[in-house]
Write a structure and sequence with these properties.
Layout lengths: L8 E8 L9 E9 L7 E6 L8 H7 L12 H12 L3 E4 L2 H15 L11 E3 H8 L4 H9 L9 H19 L3 E3 L5 E4 L5 H8 L11 E3 L5 E3 L9 H7 L1 H9 L4 H14 L3
Parallel strand pairs: 1-4, 4-5
Antiparallel strand pairs: 1-2, 2-3, 6-7, 8-9
Length: about 270
């Protein structure tokens, strides 16, 4: 089943030096762009020299070693190429909301490139799978497509599998009602519409990939950590201006720092 698109949709996957989205670095990035105009999809796959040690745990998973990256470009050298390839596309990936998206945003921020996702839809294919048939990507590909995932944790193979799984999910679930624990219908589970898939695969109360910020029931941005957990960011900044400066100096993602800066500027513009 083809995915209905209003604008281009980029499936992407990252292999990295580790799992810390702030400290670790990208060493492989693969993207498949589905075109809204129906023209052939495009692929971009890059090995990147991270200039940063690769953890033993990460190498055991993806098999990429420092020797493989000796003569490869740094992220700074390929950042514009990646940025231009993605353009204004929406995004899709497997567990991308908590890992791939924030890590890519951090890498762009380090080289002074603002990668804004506020105007993009983001589909996390894993969340559809976990809500409907909780399993791994390998099992998802077998379940939805009847295929075996060869050479898992190669970024391009993983992103191809993710694309195929979403198509299989749409074929299986489109129009099927989602049921609560009592068997009552709670709405349409999956629809072939990027905006609705974005809503379905995202926790709409969570704002950033590291879940440091969220929306309360009134739609206000509140802290989701520390001594001010549950309090609105605006009210805290009104009382304690230095808390904003503390966040800017500490190890929070670029996404978190950007969001709280917008709130801070709004508070003190009044």
């Amino acid at each position: 089943m083809d995915i209905k698109l209003k604008r281009d949709l980029c499936f992407f996957d990252i292999e990295s030096t580790g799992l810390n989205v702030i400290k670790d670095r990208i060493l492989q990035l693969a993207i498949i762009k589905l075109k809204a105009d129906g023209s052939p999809e495009e692929e971009l796959c890059l090995l990147i020299n991270p200039g940063f040690p690769i953890s033993e745990e990460a190498m055991a998973i993806h098999g990429i070693t420092p020797k493989d990256l000796i003569n490869k470009p740094t992220f700074e050298q390929v950042a514009q190429r990646i940025f231009d390839f993605i353009g204004d596309s929406d995004l899709a990936g497997y567990n991308c909301h908590r890992f791939d998206v924030p890590m890519l945003m951090e890498e762009f921020a380090r080289v002074g490139c603002e990668f804004d996702i506020d105007r993009r839809k983001v589909i996390d294919v894993q969340r559809i799978f976990y809500k409907m048939e909780p399993r791994t990507l390998k099992a998802a590909l077998r379940f939805y497509c009847g295929k075996e995932l060869e050479d898992a944790h190669d970024a391009l193979n993983d992103v191809r599998a993710t694309r195929d799984v979403l198509k299989g999910q749409l074929a299986r679930y489109e129009g099927k009602p989602l049921l609560d624990d009592d068997g009552n219908e709670t709405g349409i589970a999956v629809e072939n519409d990027v905006a609705k898939l974005h809503d379905f695969t995202n926790d709409l109360k969570t704002i950033d990939g590291t879940q440091r910020l969220k929306y309360n029931d009134k739609g206000e941005i509140v802290f989701n950590f520390g001594k001010y957990s549950g309090r609105t960011v605006a009210s805290v900044f009104k009382e304690e201006k230095n808390y904003f400066y503390w966040i800017q100096k500490m190890e929070f993602t670029h996404q978190v720092k950007t969001i709280v800066k917008k709130v801070f500027d709004e508070v003190y513009a009044k």
